[in-house]
Amino acid sequence: MHANITNVNLANGDLWEVEHFETQVGQLTSDNKRLAIPDFQIPIYRRSRIMAARFFNPVAKPYWKLGCYLKQSVAAPAALDPSGFVELAAWRVPLHLPNLTRNQRLFFPDPVATTWQLLASVPTWHQEAHITVWSYTGEISTPLIDQIETIRAQQVEINNKLNQLLAS
């Protein structure tokens, strides 16, 4: 039987490893206000074609929906981009609220680059952030990789259409 994304057991905890956990808190100013959390890099050591991320803020308002953005980028010559990095993909990670169904974001890193970084960008209203990133360690067959690439292409197309709608 050919593997496909619907029969891969993503719910099996034995097939996921915590890749990274990080807590960030906005700096406290002299007048007891918190600054925004600056963008920060999440170290990724085990590359996987399927990954997941969860964003949690223990003092979040119940009506907040967005947790953070994750951006996959690769090193680039300064002539191409002054920052030294070119973005390959980006994902919105929903705010995890234990009593709601919003949990984590499944994402599929671009396999073109063997060396890449993951950057977290936290909206200004979050003053505390707990981010967990997991790598899928289960078997990923060639037919499944083809399906992942189709899903990635569809995600790009959907994001482009959303950007067009927001711009008009």
Q: Give the strand order of the largest sheet, numbering strands 1, 2, ... along the chain.
A: 1-8-3-6
Distance between the termini: 46 Å
What is the number of independent domains?
1
Query: Biggest sheet: strands, sense, closure?
Result: 4 strands, antiparallel
At CATH level 2, the architecture is: Sandwich
- SSE class: alpha+beta
**CATH topology descriptor:** Jelly Rolls
Order of helices and strands: EEEEEEEEH
Count the DSSP helices: 1
What are its keywords?
168 residues, alpha+beta, Jelly Rolls, four-stranded antiparallel β-sheet, 8 strands, globular, disordered N terminus
What does this entry look like structurally?
By secondary structure, this protein is an alpha+beta fold. Helix content is 15%, strand content 33%. The protein has one domain (14-140): Jelly Rolls, CATH 2.60.120. It has one helix and eight strands; from the N terminus they run ββββββββα. The chain has a four-stranded antiparallel sheet, with no helix packed on it. Strands 2-7-4-5 form a four-stranded antiparallel sheet, with no helix packed on it. It is globular and about 55 Å long. It starts with 15 loop residues before the first strand and ends with a helix. Mean pLDDT is 79; it is low at 1-6.
